[in-house]
Amino acid sequence: MTVLQDCRSREKLVVVGAGMAATRFVEELTNRAPGRYDILVIGDEPRLAYNRVLLSSVLAGELSVDDIELKPAQWWRAAGVEVLSGRTVIKINAAARRILLDNGESVDYSKVVLATGSRAARLPIEGADLPGVHTFRDVQDVEALSRLGKEMRALVIGGGLLGLEAAYGLARRGVDVTLAHVMDRLMERQLDAAGADILRRLVEEKGVRALLNANATRINGSGRVENVEFADGQTIPVDAVIFAVGIQPNADLARQAGLDVGRGVKVDDGLKTSEAGVFAIGECAEHRGVCYGLVEPAYEQGRVLAMRLAGQDASYGGSVVSTNLKVSGVRVFSAGDYLGEGDARRIVCKDPRMGIYRKLVVRDDRLVGAILIGDTRGATDLLDLIRSGAKVSSLCDELMFGPPMQEAA
């Protein structure tokens, strides 16, 4: 039986941010070192942590907000963790090891972990602040978009993961949706041209019109949104505009505290910032010049930091970026060097009619990248091979035409 230490003898650990990265970190730490820290989690949203990846399902009406809650209140209590919801940290005094809250209260700490996440970006164009212009990032955004009535016209700007998810959720609600993307293909950071073309057709079959090479330059309206102008002269009448053009790390608090900040809060391989006792994980952190906007790297960082704070040896060397999601109702997996330029060998199998695309990228007899669309079974094995660097010469046929593909054929 584990005996918790007396609170007065434990180190005070404050986690600023109460999202997915913070939750995974606290879970890992309390499992590895139960009772070692007196933990306080502070989140500015008025609810417990939830799964942002599933927000499109909430928007579509397939799930409720309660369904996507990560941990219930009783879990936090059982773990001995205090959670302050609806509170904002407005200042960190790193020298005094003290934080100040928006209600005037202050909290002393021994260690503090910044897991402040990111915020939705908006295009710096005229009309971006008109009523009827939204972002798609949190529950409040979903609640606002859920008030759009059927047959209303919505324009989603951005053809990455967030844009596709927002468009799909709105289409499922009966909203007339157009998705505009400035690039020549959807999800250009995860897919090649052939894979993106299949995804576009599948998305359009689900009721979302996709405009590529579409550069929005101005939002017009008298009192609220009425139409959007594009660089090519096209104008689209709309009732709502949703920005899904990327994210910006929430690093203002760290910058104000005098920490080294680039695009995000700079951390080393131990997730330490430039100030003693201050750490950062998740979308707010910048590691070796990279800010990851995905869940898995945040989880990996949270696990490494939990191990270190539990007294175990661990080091974060970066993440193999991968995507394994249901995007706009379509299964999509992408990992590693999916383009495979230069001397890489590219193995491709596609059936546009069935909406299936599989691509493996092999270099020096090692799997370095992969794309799966439509049927993503086997994705976990592919990611493991990419990470391990194991030789795959005897596995290529099995990986490409394994049992799932043979059954489909």
TrEMBL record:
<dbReference type="InterPro" id="IPR036188">
    <property type="entry name" value="FAD/NAD-bd_sf"/>
</dbReference>
<comment type="similarity">
    <text>Belongs to the FAD-dependent oxidoreductase family.</text>
</comment>
<dbReference type="InterPro" id="IPR050260">
    <property type="entry name" value="FAD-bd_OxRdtase"/>
</dbReference>
<dbReference type="Pfam" id="PF18267">
    <property type="entry name" value="Rubredoxin_C"/>
</dbReference>
<keyword id="KW-0285">Flavoprotein</keyword>
<keyword id="KW-0274">FAD</keyword>
<feature type="domain" description="FAD/NAD(P)-binding">
    <location>
        <begin position="12"/>
        <end position="302"/>
    </location>
</feature>
<dbReference type="InterPro" id="IPR023753">
    <property type="entry name" value="FAD/NAD-binding_dom"/>
</dbReference>
<dbReference type="InterPro" id="IPR016156">
    <property type="entry name" value="FAD/NAD-linked_Rdtase_dimer_sf"/>
</dbReference>
<dbReference type="Pfam" id="PF07992">
    <property type="entry name" value="Pyr_redox_2"/>
</dbReference>
<protein>
    <submittedName>
        <fullName>NAD(P)/FAD-dependent oxidoreductase</fullName>
    </submittedName>
</protein>
<dbReference type="InterPro" id="IPR041575">
    <property type="entry name" value="Rubredoxin_C"/>
</dbReference>
<feature type="domain" description="NADH-rubredoxin oxidoreductase C-terminal">
    <location>
        <begin position="322"/>
        <end position="389"/>
    </location>
</feature>
